[in-house]
# Entry
Amino acid sequence: MTESSDAAQGPTAPPPTDGAWDGAAAMRSVYQQVDWSATALGPQETWPALLRLVADLCLDSDAPVLIGWGPDLLMLYNEAYIPLLGAEKHPWALGRPASEVKPRLWPAEEERVHDIMQTGRPYHLDDQLLIIERHGYPEEAYFSFSISALRDADGTIVGVFTAISEPTWHVQYERRLQALRRLGTVSITADDSLASTCRAALEVIGKTRASVPFAAVFLRDLASQGPRRAAGYGFDEAAAASCELVELAPTSGTVLQVLEHGGTELVSGLRERYPNVFAPGPLGPLTPDQAFVLPVIMLGARKPLGVLVLGVNPYLRPDDSYTAFAVMASRQLGVMVTDAVSYQGELKRQQALQELERARTEFFQNITHELRAPLTMLLMPLQDILVEPGVVLPAAARDTVETSVRAGDRLQRVVDALLDISRVESSALIPYREEIDLVLATLDVVEGFRPTAEGRLNLRVDMPTDPLRAYVDRTMWTTIVGNLVNNALKFTADGEVAVILSGDDSQVVLTVADTGIGIPHDKQTAIFERFNRGTAGDQHPGSGIGLALVADLTSAHGGTVEVDSEPGAGSRFIVRLPRYNGSQVDLAADSAAASDGEQDTGDRPRLLIIEDEPDLRTYLTRLFSKDGYAVEAVGDAENAHAWLENNPDNPPDMVITDVMLPGRSGLDLLAMIRQDDRLARLPVIVLTARADVESAVAAFAAGADDFVSKPFNSAELLARVRAHYQMNQLRDLAIGEAQTTVGQLRNALQSNRTTGTAVGMVMTRYELDAQQAFKVLARISQQSNRKLHDIAEDLVRTGELPGVPDWPLTSSGP
# Structure
């Protein structure tokens, strides 16, 4: 059998009834031979005019028509109705009551027909299944009925007229088309092998067993190059060894032939040859007797990779449309297999790249740690010689030792930079922000470069006279300044290197400008890439780490770095960092005071803090007291639980707890709070020194409302606490005012809480502010065409954004 070219066409219309007019004439002859006087209808010449009229209409129609006349529904029908009646009952059924004839498919229940006789209301019934024999074999067919009342001249109902249509072809076509559509939606990303892809495909096809009562897929075995069954359904596994169409590894027969040579084959006689192998389908007791055997070919390949066996509906005979369906199913499976092979290959490549990246990062970390010990042992004795009292070195020897110390210091900086780079690549570069005076911190770094600049160029500083305080990581800030100044001195033979620091309420700006050789325009976009090395005249090129590390450290703070350079005229590097200064905290406190004033009450929000580190506990107490909270601070979970038990009538409005506590952990305390009906809705924020997503997931799973990693930004923590406090106040107020809408309110609050939690997780992991984190979720929602709330729920539940294995982020958002 050759493959059909009509695979993509719609259903073919049923062929016209051959000799329809001759059939009507033959049926009229039968009517003339019937002894109507022996029936309740009486002789034809005595029939009412209406009955003679509808009988003529019935006989002339090439579609099945049934007439029920009078209270007993005496039957008249045309030749097309005989298969529905049952050929053995024709012509005996003419003129007899329908209840006595009982045709194979009565168009409606007897009560329904009598209701039509009483009320005249029409009745319609679609797609009724009937197994009939009209072509010499049991056949699946579908019929739709339209039953209406027959009325005489005065409007009296005297019978029913049933027009019958057959949508068999349409029903079968839609059923097959739905199977192909489902097959096209099967995801191959959840499968880890070709066999699992084939099982997924047959699971879809198996939902249409009326069209495909059994199926099997064979894949070429890599060792033997023969077929081996990968999936199947609709047959007895124990008896399958006797049938090459479903045998586990057939060594002969049609499956092997199609695997080697392709083509589409139709195998018949299964019922007789394999009586105990195949199960009946959903249409009736018959077992399949035929099957299509088709090649499964990957796109771009010539030789089949496998074979698809599709059992044929035992109540049909394969025609062009059935063959086209089978061919399209095999082609779709070939596409799925092609996609699966490509996906699995790409997945393996990605895994190999990730493993290579992991190994590279681990190498950087190991080698830097290994270099630190010998560097220390090298530098310490040399430094001791230079400062040892009573040791007088010749000028040449002292110069040699000082040169060695400078070289060792330079190597130490390279090692430190490599370690920082490895931390960046392992996502462990998290700034420990503290409030420092950037003026003093910057001057300390710059003064360390004075000996290098003296006698060669002018090292100028331009700093504010007053302290410039900001929340930054002190070590990272000194690295940023040191690398920029060192880079400027390296590429400036004479002239000036200027270090300028300024700031306003929102940001600080560091500018390092030089009069050196400058950077070619075509090189400026690449200078912040790792291991991109520039040259300084006759000097050796750099390591390519310094400027890349500046960019990474700046990004970790949520800042930016840019360069402005002209070849031969020098360069300017400009670093901008968010300040997060004390005025923002004061502003929050003022807002809290104003809010408390608007509530027209002297009561301050009550806050319970559990933190075992005394200094941090004192700092948090001072921070939140200044922001308008009444703070109770304890050092462990036991004291916190005792305090809650001793204040049943005056619980706190919020709890902030560390995770790692002496004795029971903060999560244990959280579990106790959630089990107490009085405190179940109490907002709880968890603090932890671990910044990984797994810790966040564990906190949220235990019932935390928010998760903040140390070191944290004070202004951000204040904002989060106030947001949860206000949300809890709104929730309690709404519950008190509208008990009838409590369900809707909980859903809304849960949605807000989930979204807020997801935003917090993104902020924690990538050091973004709230607006940037929300933009990340919104962008992913748009790209995946899913609701933002659903994205947030998945993130809170799993710790990962669904369908986004490695979502790229920058400090400024998505």
Observations:
- The mean pLDDT is 80.
- The chain is about 45% helix and 15% strand.
